[in-house]
Design a protein that fits this description.
Order of helices and strands: EEHEEHHHHHH
Largest sheet: 2 strands, antiparallel
Number of domains: 1
Number of strands: 4
Strand order of the largest sheet: 1-2
Distance between the termini: 22 Å
Radius of gyration: 16 Å
Strand content: 5-15%
Number of helices: 7
Length: about 200
């Protein structure tokens, strides 16, 4: 069995380069409004999948034997590509509103409640803790291929639209002061998604 990389930003190290192909048409800002198909969940921005994900054998294989997909590091995706793929610059309040829209998929437990306490999300640094409760671990959060989730491009706790990205590599690297509260409330009152339940979303 292949060794998984540590739970750090180094988990993005082996991602494949961006494809050399014509970009699809731009899409509206994502709101997790994909649909279920016979082949699984189809994201609303699925045409952009090659630009936002890459095959990663360490996540296992799909029924047809091909590797599951892992999400790319949003800090390494061109800002214009993110914008066209449905991930424009948005405030955390706008991201939360998009996530809790009534048509969103996979955002809650069996009772329809959010997976974690969204009211605790007050900045980009608070998003990874929420995503950890959804994915089941920090490692799977970094590998997340649910590309139509509003939080997807911000799941590292950094703003990929910040003009200083790459100039100040540690920008956004501080831990969230709300992280412990988010995790504690999620464990106390919400049903987390187990790794086994999470991986099928990566299968597309």
């Amino acid at each position: 069995m292949a060794r998984l990389l540590p739970h750090s930003e180094a988990a993005f190290a082996a991602q494949a380069p961006l494809p050399a192909r014509t970009e699809p048409d731009p899409v509206a800002p994502v709101r997790l409004q994909g649909r279920m198909t016979p082949n699984g969940y189809q994201a609303e921005n699925s045409a952009w999948k090659p630009f936002l994900t890459y095959p990663d054998k360490r996540l296992g294989t799909r029924a047809d034997g091909s590797p599951r997909l892992a999400g790319r590091d949003p800090m390494q995706i061109p800002i214009e590509t993110l914008r066209k793929a449905g991930h424009p610059k948005r405030s955390t309040a706008a991201l939360v509103r998009a996530l809790v829209n009534p048509n969103a998929q996979h955002t809650g437990n069996e009772e329809g409640d959010p997976i974690g306490p969204l009211e605790c999300i007050r900045g980009y640094r608070d998003i990874p803790a929420y995503c950890d409760t959804c994915a089941g671990s920090a490692h799977l959060r970094r590998k997340c291929a649910t590309i139509d989730c509003p939080f997807w491009a911000f799941r590292t706790g950094r703003n990929p639209h910040n003009p200083k990205r790459g100039v100040k590599p540690q920008f956004g690297g501080k831990k969230s002061p709300m992280g412990a509260e988010i995790r504690d409330e999620a464990e106390a009152g919400a049903t987390s998604v187990a790794e086994a339940d999470f991986q099928p979303q990566n299968a597309l």
